[in-house]
Hints:
This protein is an alpha/beta fold. The chain contains 14 helices and 18 strands.
Amino acid sequence: MTEGDERLRVAVLGCGAVGSQVVRLLAEQHDDLAARVGAPVELVGVAVRRLDAPREVEVPEGLLTTDAAGLVARDDVDLVVEVIGGIEPARGLILSALENGASVVTANKALLAEDGPTLFEAAAKAGRDLYYEAAVAGAIPILRPLRESLAGDKVTRVLGIVNGTTNFILDKMDTSGAGFSEALQEAQDLGYAEADPTADVEGFDAAAKAAILASLAFHSRVTASDVHREGISEVTAADVASARDMGSVVKLLAICELRGDQVAARVHPAMIPRSHPLASVREAYNAVFVESEAAGQLMFYGPGAGGAPTASAVLGDLVTVARNRLAGTRGAGESAYADRAVQPMGETRTRYHVAIDVDDRAGVLAAVANAFADHDVSIQTVRQEGRGADAQLVVVSHAAPDAALAATVQQLREMDIVREVTSVMRVEGGDE
Ligand code: HSE
């Protein structure tokens, strides 16, 4: 912002699915944005990799550039929107923008989850804002509620469906009985899943989001490498059918919990009861369920991806950051004062559902029960179905350290009376 000129100048880095919608909304909402901010918000540059690439928006003449570093170094840029994604060059560009006095809005979950503290420290040093609502669950306002609305409460748990691709696949498996590969193919055909679906199906995307959620919820630094991660590629039609028999559904959950004075953060498929609010989240939608001491249970639901929904979250941040800028102030920065340690997964208390094919003869049920007892795991329910000389046992445990449950399953696999362990999955959302 230059002396006597109250326009706020915005540079956008990246003009793909999200960037093009940011550019569109900046133009279409120009007058309303000016009224809401208190000054016109002008687009002054859009950095892209290739000038001649096809794009979903017409960028005004002369604004496109391939020189992103030059754009963020301009001394007339007040606000930088980073929607390139990935670690570099995004990190260098954001740091350079902050050093040059710009405030930053980013949707970059991978970077925030890997190296958030470097960015937060740079923003604090520069006295500028770094906002990132769009990094988790697209259009759903969840980071601001955690950072601001619940700042006076004590959040104890955040349970989220934060990856639309995997939710679409699991929903398809549940409704049609399809296997993982078939459901993935359909997700790819419909454009929900990438040609290389690894980041989504193996839980990397959700783990980055879990790290961001846990950091904000528990005022501690949690990075992607602190998050225990398992994807959905091993989920079988038998797992989904077994869940259905129990009145449950399989979801890929990001689970962030306060455990004593530690934080636990994990991403894995889990069975949740169909009566749980997250069970009704269908197709590619996202939802985040928050439990806090005073507020109780809250649920945030909506589209978690897509150009326009994600751009909505970016623009919301842009308005806040622009207002702060105009007022000569900045919003709350990083809050990591609690500095809680991250609990190792093996110590985190979880519940397991285990389906086993066994011989149907005297002592088998007792032997299976003993395997649980050997690891000090208490059984909550057992269901047995006779199948001639065989039987299927479905055991659901009470909560126990995850390592004890994993060791129980290993012991079951090694027992002569066990023909096959057909399904192993954690259970969430019910009584422990
Ligand atoms: N690929 C993500 C999803 C969206 O499927 O939800 C971006 O984080």
